[in-house]
Amino acid sequence: MSKIVLASGNAGKLREFSALFDTHFAEQNIELIPQTQLNVIEAEETGLSFVENAILKARNACAATGLPALADDSGLEVDALQGAPGIYSARYAAADDGFGQGDSANNAKLLAALKDVPEAQRTARFQCVLVYMRHAADPTPQVFQGSWEGRILTAPEGHDGFGYDPLFFVPGEGCASASLSKERKNQLSHRGQAIQQLLARWHV
Ligand SMILES: O=P(O)(O)OP(=O)(O)OP(=O)(O)OC[C@H]1O[C@@H](n2cnc3c(O)ncnc32)[C@H](O)[C@@H]1O
Ligand SMILES: [Mg+2]
Fold this sequence. Notes:
Elements: E1 2-6, H1 11-27, E2 30-34, H2 50-65, E3 69-78, H3 103-113, E4 123-133, E5 142-152, E6 168-170, E7 175-176, H4 182-188, H5 190-201
Parallel strand pairs: 1-2, 1-3
Antiparallel strand pairs: 3-4, 4-5, 5-6, 6-7
Helix pairs in contact: 1-5, 4-5
The structure holds inosine 5'-triphosphate and magnesium ion (MG).
């Protein structure tokens, strides 16, 4: 059985990954182990792009474990905010701006920032970059990407998913992504697209 570290501490991402990877990897005798189980200390996300941050996270996990690693860097780009929160999506709200920290603080801050923005201008997309590295010095990381178009709601909706899902309206489905099953979200989402690409093309 070969092992790959999944370089993420986000429980919502991990659930989505295992839904798509578990069967596929079991067939290939590959075990995907979340970095939290291997006591990997999280990388500092100092990059200026999703690609750089995903590489930093994968390299950090490879260096800490000696295993190959897969990392996800993702975020929400809102057109009316010139692409913010983007690569800073996980840390959009901060302790000192009155919203606190974490998913619900991020959502509250986003709603406040878009308070006067009409529906037609509330367009947004989720971006996801996945990076696979065979070892910490891998000179050719494999990069996969997906994006998912939607609109920011004026109030949260739905109870599934994580992060900005309660505010992300999916036009084709007529509901927020937090109202979609994990399976349906994986068929459509930025992360689902990147994972499908990876499964079709990668070489371990
Ligand atoms: O870095 P890791 O440990 O993987 O976990 P993280 O939560 O910090 O992840 P990112 O640095 O990639 O930040 C991405 C943020 O973008 C948001 N996000 C990404 N994908 C999302 C999705 O599918 N649904 C809702 N929000 C999402 C969510 O708030 C994440 O915290
Ligand atoms: Mg992060």
